[in-house]
Each structure stands twice: as C-alpha cells, then as structure tokens.
Design goal:
Length: 164
C-alpha cells in the first residue's frame, strides 16, 4: 500500500498479497510439470519415473524468487524434454520402456537410466496408460521396475470427456 498512490488503490476492489511458495509447494509444481512430460511419453508407451532428488535439481536450476515457479516449465522443456528427445532419436528409448530420472550425487545434474520392457503398454490388451512413477530417494530401480510390471493398466474413459 505504501508503494501506490491512493488514487490507484481506491480504484481496486481487493488487494491480494501472495506469499512466496514453500519448497514443498515448489516441488508439487515441478511434479505437475513432470506429469505433463510423462503424459507425452505415455503416448508412445514409455513410463517416466522421477525421484524427489531429481525434482530438487529441477527447482535449484530453474527457480527464480522474482518469477516464482514460472520458469520450471521452460527449464523442463529446454533440458529434460530435449534430452529425452535426443534419447528417442538415438533409439535409446523405445515403446514399453521406463525412463528413470535421478540426481547425480553431489552435483546439480540429472541422471537418465532406461529399462526396456517395463513401460506402459499392457501386453494382453495393448492399452497404454499415462502416469508418473514417483520414487522415494534411495529407491531400488529393480523394485520400481517390478512394480511397474505388476500394475494393472486400465484405460481411463473420462479423458475423452475433458477435451473441448
């Protein structure tokens, strides 16, 4: 209120003050943005698994206190999606693969690992699912791959209703 003239303030109906986002809130934003990337990969039958440590790297590299969480999407497109695209072009990733993204210990870098035949295509029906696998820090990649293989993939019919 002390920055604006009273004439301007009188024209406003309400003033909403936004507090800075907490680290956990920022992590939720990064997770939501990562789910968008996972949905794009799921169209190809590829699962995406990320750790909290990898989300922390994304935040440390993209977060700006002035802009808040807005740069997160741009950073993911520039770094993560570009890297995944290169891996697809080099045929390191194919349908029914799982891509694991983790943080390199002691560095602000992401580590990409691929497991084939552990993706999102149900072998019996051929249906594809789209979800982001969230792995706790200190995860065991083999355990995660087994859990993906054991998941029942059910097509979601509500998705068609959401389209304009």
């Amino acid at each position: 209120r002390k920055h604006f003239r009273p004439e301007l303030l009188n024209r406003l109906d309400e003033i909403v003050i936004f507090d800075p986002l907490s680290h956990e809130q920022l992590r939720k934003v990064a997770r939501l943005q990562m789910k968008d990337v996972a949905a794009r990969l799921a169209e190809r039958g590829i699962a995406l698994a990320v750790t909290d440590a990898s989300l922390d790297v994304v935040l440390s590299e993209s977060y700006d206190p002035v802009y808040g969480a807005r740069p997160v999407r741009r950073w993911l497109e520039k770094r993560v999606v570009t890297q995944l695209s290169k891996m697809l072009a080099r045929e390191e990733i194919d349908e029914n693969s799982t891509v694991y993204i983790d943080a390199v210990a002691g560095m602000n870098e992401l580590l990409y690992m691929v497991t084939r035949n552990g993706g999102l295509v149900d072998n019996t029906t051929g249906h594809k699912s789209d979800f982001l696998i969230e792995l706790p820090n200190g995860h065991n990649r083999n355990d995660a791959a087994q859990s993906v293989k054991k998941m029942k993939i059910v097509p979601d019919e509500d998705d068609d209703d959401d389209m304009p």
